Amino acid sequence: MPIALTNAQIRFLRGQAHDLKAMLQVGGKGITDALAAEVDGALEHHELIKVKVAAEDREARDAMIAELAERSDAVLVQRIGHVAVLYRPARDKRQIVLPRA
User: Fold this and answer.
1) Rounded distance between C-alpha atoms, residue 69 and residue 1, angstroms
2) Per-residue pLDDT band at 99 (split at 50, 70, 90)
3) Torsion angle of alpha carbons 42, 72, 10, 93, nearest 10°?
4) What pLDDT score does 38 carry?
5) C-alpha–C-alpha distance, residues 55 and 58, integer Å
6) DSSP calls for 13-67
7) The whole model's pTM is what?
8) For 43-69, how does the pLDDT look when each residue is reduced to its tens digit (9 = 90+)?
9) What is the maximum alpha-carbon separation in the chain?
10) How far is the C-alpha of 87 from the C-alpha of 66, rounded, in Å?
11) N or C: which end of the chain has fewer CB within 10 A?
């Protein structure tokens, strides 16, 4: 189950994600098991990632981003155009310390 973030924590994460480059891209095949595993591994290692979704239709893009966040138990921090920012704290070694709620 994804964690709940306060507005201050979301603002903090958006600031942290500002300089990040899109790490993964969802292509024409959509969300495959391999892509979901890559997102899971990237979130475990980095905690905060950007994913680029190449769907042209806005509803399809939103559905893909929601499915990706749900399958990886991540929180959607921000979505601008084709790029989504996902956050999930690492299970073993946390790197990002969120501000208090």
Assistant:
1) 11
2) confident
3) -50
4) 94
5) 7
6) HHHHHTTPPEEEEE-TT-S-HHHHHHHHHHHHHHSEEEEEE--SSHHHHHHHHHH
7) 0.91
8) 999 999 999 998 888 999 999 999 999
9) 40
10) 13
11) N
